[in-house]
Amino acid sequence: MKKSIFAVSWLLLGVVLFSFRGDAAYENQIKEWHKKRVEGLKAEEGWLNLAGLFWLEEGVNTFGGSSENDIIFPQDHSKPALGKIILQNGQVTLEADKDAEIFNGTEPVEKITLFPYQKPVVVKHQSLRWFIIKRGDKYAVRLRDLESQTLKDFKGIHTYPINENWKVKAKLEKTEGKKVAITDITGRLSQEDSPGTLVFNIKGKEYRLDAVGTEKNLFIIFGDETNKKETYGAGRFVYASEKAEDGSYWLDFNKATNPPCAFSPYATCPLPPKQNKLAVAITAGEKRFGDH
């Protein structure tokens, strides 16, 4: 009898230790993922160094550090006059002033086409970097400053405690040719291709989220009852790409992130569609950052 009790005790201890090791491994995985997320935000292509978003007028747009320009760059990191950016019939060209010290890579720029492009053409002057984005029928200069004060002051992002229960299985209900209406913070509406709807359960209740992107990498813009209280008011992002053995997706809310607009007023973030606002508090992932 004593041997039987002893054996059962060791068996239970083994289960507990195995469970602990599993939890620890998952927690370390999320911590490593979040570390890379923070490194990405701080990188040259990250969101923390955004320093301006300037919508172009058709024709000539002068730019530089002087207030006399149409586009005013940070005075501490720019010569007073750098040149002109010309928008004409959907093409954007930069013409640099003499001795402006604008570079494309290591090559000095006199005149260069910034848009259209196969990949963004990034030009630079001192600590500044900029390129062209298009939103709807509008074009803008997106400016980065590698010496941005926001970047210097960044101390990280608060998150909820890691909890593997927020990694849920979700079935993808595929919908051929489906479009999802997405509005961004500028008010522009776009119709995005959707592979379908993710269906999942939280505490026994079914929820649904429309995804955009591709079946290999589903992108979900969602809101929940923590918004404006503990998390960013306009919702958060999460991706689903890892499939379970039964073909369903793992939807891991521990990887829910703030949109770029949480870090900068110069981003143009998509907002959750009405059907993606969940009537439940998702207490996982990144918490609120800043007041943008």
What do you see in this structure?
- By secondary structure, this protein is of the alpha+beta class.
- The chain folds into two domains: 50-153, Tumour Suppressor Smad4 (Sandwich); 156-292, no CATH class.
- Helix content is 16%, strand content 38%.
- It contains two helices and 17 strands.
- The chain has helices at 2-42, 149-153, and strands at residues 50-55, 59-64, 71-72, 83-88, 91-96, 103-104, 107-108, 111-115, 123-125, 128-135, 138-145, 167-183, 189-202, 205-214, 217-222, 236-240, 249-252.
- It has a six-stranded antiparallel beta sheet with strand order 16-15-14-13-12-17, with no helix packed on it.
- Strand 9 (123-125) and strand 10 (128-135) form a beta hairpin.
- The protein starts with a helix and ends in a 40-residue tail after the last strand.
- The relative contact order is 0.12.
- Residues 6-21 have low confidence and may be disordered.
